[in-house]
Specification:
Radius of gyration: 17 Å
CATH class: Alpha Beta
Structural class: alpha/beta
Largest sheet: 8 strands, mixed
Helix content: 10-25%
CATH superfamily: NagB/RpiA/CoA transferase-like
Number of strands: 12
């Protein structure tokens, strides 16, 4: 009798954690379709952005059950002029940069097949980082590519704001931040601002 090995047994602890949390987030989002959670998160995030007054705001194109930054009140409600930018990821070498974005549906995709802008490269002073999970200390679990951490390490003057649903909060011991992990300045959820 042959025993079929459990394919998850070869996955790293972070990868298993990511899978579990993505499934939990999908279930949470399915239980909260179109409810007030998105409006509450947008409101908290808008207040943070009004205080920060970014000249260039790096947003993201939502995937799966992430908060959609398009739900934010118009960026023209922020003092001064704010431009928007979207990340563009390359597979080789593995890197990310931002490109100016007009707020319309992206006309292209990056090398990771994520909708992306075709605008000129820019360096935003504030970026929104989607989180699969986060800790109270501002550590973020993303999708595992390391794109945001590498970009933040190269741009230490940028303010990084994590965006997540409250169901993604985990204990720092469960995440066990690694040397390359860079904490976020704030994490914003539908329940408020952490940090």
């Amino acid at each position: 009798m042959s025993i079929v090995p459990d394919p998850s047994s070869t996955l790293s602890p972070r990868r298993l954690l990511r899978q579990r949390l993505l499934a939990a987030r999908e279930a949470w989002a399915a239980a909260h379709p179109g409810d007030s959670a998105a409006s509450a998160l947008a409101g908290h995030l808008a207040l943070v952005l009004q205080r920060l007054e970014p000249a260039c705001l790096g947003v993201y194109w939502p995937m799966r059950s992430e908060f959609n930054p398009a739900l934010l009140p118009a960026v023209d409600s922020i003092e001064g002029e704010t431009t928007l930018s979207l990340p563009f990821c390359r597979r080789e070498p593995r890197e990310m940069h931002y490109r100016l974005w007009d707020g319309q549906a992206p006309r292209g995709v990056d090398e990771c097949r994520i909708p992306a802008s075709d605008g000129k490269p820019v360096v935003p002073d504030v970026v929104l980082a989607p989180c699969v999970a986060f800790t109270r200390g501002g550590y973020r679990l993303g999708y595992g590519g390391g794109y945001f951490d590498r970009w933040l390490a190269a741009h230490p003057g940028t303010t990084a704001i994590g965006v997540a649903w409250s169901c993604g909060e985990i204990d720092e011991a469960e995440l066990a931040p690694e040397a390359h992990d860079i904490p976020l300045m704030f994490v914003v959820t539908e329940q408020g601002v952490i940090g």
